[in-house]
Amino acid sequence: MTEETATAADEFRSFRPLWASVAAWCVGVLAVGGSLFVGFASRTSLATTAVNRWSFVGLAACAAALLWRLGGVRATPSPQRLVVRNILRTRRLDWPQIVAVRMSLSDPWVMLDLADGTTQPVMAVQRADGKRGIAEAGRLAALVRQLGEAPDPR
Predict the structure, then answer these.
(1) Sign of CA dihedral 129, 131, 134, 139
(2) What is the Cα–Cα distance from 16 to 14, expressed in whole angstroms?
């Protein structure tokens, strides 16, 4: 791999939160393991009936699904677009749709100002990640400046 292709690959690497993913996986293992333990291995009155046991399995499944989505938050850039996967929704944005990248002191993550006047949160770039999060916001802003201009019709 040449230095030029390595730089291009680095430029388009996915944005992912550092601590949110770690926390989601750790809490997921504990929640699922705890629910299954209480539902099947525990000899308490909570786990005496089949309905109670299966409700713990359902709780474990819901917790796993939610935490899987939390752990899978990312933004994937390509030369054509940015794919933003937040907890509930995945959105594909062509670069010219993105007008600005903001992360104020009160914002927990990056907000994109879009050409239609709306905003799009990017939970993959988080203030909780400290200097890394701020650097990633700068990298995203640089991509928007580089690729976000609509082509000149002349």
Answers:
(1) negative
(2) 6
Domain 73-147 in CATH 2.50.20: no
pTM, full prediction:
0.77
Q: Where are the domains of the chain?
A: 19-71, 73-147
- Phi/psi of residue 95, nearest 5 degrees: -55, -40
Q: DSSP 3-state helix, strand, coil percentages of the chain (rounded to 5)? A: 50, 20, 25
Please name every residue paired with 66 in a beta bridge, in sequence order, or none if there are none.
Answer: none
Other CB atoms within 10 Å distance of the CB of residue 109 = 20
Beta strands 74-77 and 81-85, pairing class: antiparallel
Lowest mean pLDDT among 9-18, 73-82, 96-105: 9-18
* Ranges of H-type helices in the chain: 3-11, 19-36, 50-71, 131-147
